[in-house]
Structures are given as structure tokens and as C-alpha cells.
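Form P-L/3: holo structure prediction, ligand adenosine-5'-diphosphate.
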Amino acid sequence: MARTSSVSAPRPGPQSGEQPEPSARARLRPGPAGAPLVVTRDESLLDELLRLAAAAGVTPELVSDGGAALRPWASAPLVLVGADLAGEVGALAPARRSGVFVVGWAPVPQETFRHALEVGAESIVDLPGSTVWLSERLTDLDDDLRRPGRMVGVVGGSGGAGASTFACALGQVAAREGATLVVDADPWGPGLDRMLGLEDLDGIRWDALHHATGRVSARSLREALPRRGSLGVLTFQAGAASTLSTVAARDTLAAARRGHDVVVVDLPRSPDPLVREVVDRCDALLVVVAPTLVGVASAARLSSRLGDAPGARLVLRGRGVAEHEVAAVTGLPVAATMPDQRGLAEALDLGLGPVRSRRGPLARAAATVLAGLGPVAA
Ligand SMILES: Nc1ncnc2c1ncn2[C@@H]1O[C@H](COP(=O)(O)OP(=O)(O)O)[C@@H](O)[C@H]1O
Ligand SMILES: [Mg+2]
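OUTPUT (holo model):
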């Protein structure tokens, strides 16, 4: 986690304890609500942080003494404490919170490590070595300030129930309202990019994210994925055998949520601990059931494993066992029912995705389910 490095040539700042020039003091002013907090008297550090903030399009709130930092401390989305004032702030024992970093010119003085602990910093950010990281963090503030999007898991009650199709339909319908991402978490599935007709678009796949550790930038992720209009897709590389790494999946899905209004995850039916973890982070889990005897029996087995997940509900596809019986056997409420969609194979062949019109059964069922989630993030 520590971002300390001493690789690049240090740019010397003023000695600690030195007073700022009046010009710098004049610039110490409150920023707008939601502004990152910058706490420093180091003129050259302040210049650099202001430059990075301006490039990221944010106006920080600036304070030049420890005491003044305490008021906006809890509400600022990001707190950057200059190494020059880290000792002063640490002595005031500020409330513990995430998103606090001590920033200084490399090499930071030895005592900075102790001060960073005292202020509860996540790490020390040394400049200029970590300039890119800090720029990204500042650029991402917009996305961080938004309420994270809804995450909906979709899983088949039995093989071939129509889970992947329904996940794509949810994505297409949600994309009418805002930024949406459909995530393929089933390495053995047909590839959701193909189902949505997005397979020829440039963009990264899971394999590019497997080595991602730590915080993934929401904006970089959103912009790097194959996307048409508001609908993006994250899938596996065609033909490449692949599995999901737990760490990459965790960080990627967190970033996906920060950067989209709705994230739909097509989950495999395997009893993988990672699936359970993703399910627990979802706002809703939709179990797509073919209401045949075999389909319902399989769905009952699956719901004994995942039925206690937050917002677990059924989506019934086709005719057969009565709705209330499926609900009774699985112990889950029914969120939507739909007849088979005619012309589905043709729509997929044409690269249109499963939803061709708002009036089709898939579109209606998807809209019902999305409405049941409540309003999406503004
Ligand atoms: N709503 C639907 N209407 C008609 N056929 C469907 C529907 N959903 C899925 N199918 C068909 O069922 C088969 C399996 O669909 P798929 O979405 O891959 O299921 P799963 O992901 O549950 O294994 C496919 O041939 C697909 O065309
Ligand atoms: Mg599938």
C-alpha cells in the first residue's frame, strides 16, 4: 500500500518550519463542498498540488495549520497532509478516516513515517515519483463523490435457464438511463461481448486486469472497456481459458460501481467462494429459472446455497410450474416472469443484443426488475 519510493530525483522544498510567503497564504482559502483538503505550509509542495488539482479539474480546500484542518477533516473526500505539517496534525490526534495521505518531496524525512501513522494516513505519497498516481486519485474524485451504482448479480437456477441472456437484457435496458456495465464473471459462458454485439470493439478484457492490485481508477476502467453509448462490457478474451483472480475481481468491481449507475454481473453456477463474495456485495441477486420440474429442482439447490444473499429474487422464463410453487420450493420471491422471446437467436446473430424493442418480454422483465431496485445514482 505504501507508495513511498526514492527513485526519482528529489525536488527540494523549503525546510520544515519555514514560513510561507504572503502570496501563498493569500491563496489559502476554502474550496467548494466536496473539495479535497490540502494541509501544508510548504510553498513548493502547495504549488505542485495546486497544479495537479487544476489539471484534474478540482479546487482543493487549503489550510496552513493543523488546527484548521480538523474542521473539514471528516467531510473532505480526500485529505492530503504535507510532510511539513504531518507532525503538527498528528499531535492533534484527528479522527481516523480513510482517504488520508501524507505527501512530500522525496526523500521524505525519516520522522514522516511516524507522523503518517499518527494522522492515520493510508500511505506516504512521495513526489515526483507518485505524481501519476496522485493525479489519477484527484481525477477520480468526481466518480468517488457520486453514490456508487447498483450492482445486480444474475445466475441461472439451472444450466441454460437464460441467465446470460437476461444479464445482457438488463444491461441494454439500464443503459437507456445511464452508464451501465455488464460483467462476464463466467469464464465458461459464451462471451457477453458477443451476445451484445460488442465483440469487435476495442477495449480491455479481464486478462488485462488480472494484475491490477490496489485501487483501480473508476474513470480509467470505464474509458478502457469496450463500450457502445452508455453500455460497456467486461468479458474474457475469446478463446483464452481464464479464471477470475479474487483480488482483481474485488478491486475491479468496486471501481466499476464507482464509475457506473448500474453494474450487472453474470455469475457462474459453481460453488466458488469468489461467487459468494460477489453475491454478498450485490444489491440484488436474480436467479433465472426455467419453471420445469428439473429447472425448479436445480433452482432449489442453488437457492439453498445463495438464497440468503441480499435481494435474492427469481425471474421465471417460460411456462410450467406455477409461480407460487416455484417461490415456495426455492423460498425466494418472484421479481418478474416472462414468456420466451421470439426471434432471440436472430437478434443475437445480427449483433443487436437480446433486447430489440421496449415491448418484448425480456425488455419488460428487465425494466420491472430495474424499477424494483429503486432509483439509480444521480
Ligand atoms: N428469454 C429467452 N427467450 C427465449 N430463449 C432464451 C431466453 N433466454 C435464453 N434463451 C435461450 O436459452 C439458451 C441458454 O441461454 P443463456 O442465456 O446462455 O442461459 P444460461 O446463461 O442460463 O446458461 C440459449 O439458446 C438462449 O437463446
Ligand atoms: Mg450463462
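COMMENT: The pocket of adenosine-5'-diphosphate (ligand 1) is lined by residues 156, 159-165, 190, 288, 317, 340-341, 344-345, 362 (CB under 6 Å).
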